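Input chain follows. Return C-alpha cells only.
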Amino acid sequence: MKNMIGLLLACLCAGMPPSCALAAGGCRVLVVMSYEEDYPWVKQQKEGIDSQLGGVCEVKYFYLNTKRNFAGGGERSKEAYALYRSFRPDGVIAADDDAQAMFVVPYLRDKVKTPVMFCGVNAEPEQYGYPASNVSGVLERHHIAESIVLARQLIPSVKTIGFIMKESPVAGLVRNQVNQEYASYPIRVVGFKMPKTLMEAVAMAREFRKSADVLYVETLEGIVDAAGSPIKDREAMSTVARAFGKATLTGNSYYIEYGLLAAVVLSGQEQGATVARMLQQAMGGTPVARIPVVKNHSGKRMINVTVMKKLGITPKPLVLRGVELVRTKEP
C-alpha cells in the first residue's frame, strides 16, 4: 500500500511545481561553494545546509576552489553551469562572494526561473543586482565590534587595532565593512593591510606591533611562501601571530584553534541552515520576491587559553562566563 501511494504521489507530481517535489522528497538542489571542499568554513556551511536538506532533497555540491586558485574560478563556473543544466535542480544555493560574481550573476540571475539563495556574501547586495527576480539570501557581516569589546575585557589597556587579510576581492569587502563601522568602535583603527605573500604579511605584522595594541587577522588561505607556493591558514595564521607578538583577534572559530587569541566568531552552520530554509520556502511555492534578504546574527565568544597564558593575560572570572575556551591545535 505504501509503495502504491508513493507511486501515485510521484505520478501526480510529474510536471507539477517544485512544491510537489519538495513534499514528496524528490527535490534536487545544487550547491555551488566558492572555496575548496576541505576549507573549514565550507565544512561549516555544508553542515548547516545538510541539517535542513539532508534526507529531504538530493543535494549535489560543486566547488569553485577560488581560495587557492582564484584565476581558475571562471572555468570552474562554466563547469558549474554545465552541471546545473544537466542536473536541472529545483533550487540553487551559492555560497560566498566569488560564487555570486563568477556563477550566479553571469549564468542564473534573472535568466532562469530556478530559485537561487546565497549565503556568506560580504558585499552590499546591490553589487550583484540583488535581490533579483529569482535571487535572495543571507548577507555575512563579521562581528568586529563585538570582538573588540571582548579584547578590551581581556586587556583593558587596548586602544588601537590593525587589520591584516590576504589581498582578494573579499578582503576589500571586509575593509569596506570596517570603513563603515570604525567610528563606532571603542578603539582607534590604525590601518588595514592586504599582503600578497607571507613575507609581506610578516613584515606588516611587525610594523603593526609598533602602532597597534591588537591585530585582527582574517583569512590568509592561499597566500604564497618564499618559493611562491600557496600555504594554508593554519601555517600562515600562526606565523603572523608570532610576528606580531601581542593580542590577536579574528572572525572564525578554526583560526582561534590555529593560535589567535579571541573572537566573537561567525557561524557557517547558522548561515547554511538559514539559506537552506529560505530555499525550501521558495521551492515550496513562496515567490522569491517575498523572501527578504537577511543578515547573519549569531556570534559565539571564544578564547584560546594557550595563547592567553602565553601572553600573561589573567581575565576576571566574569569575562569568561559563557565563553568557549579552546587550546591551540597542533598540525
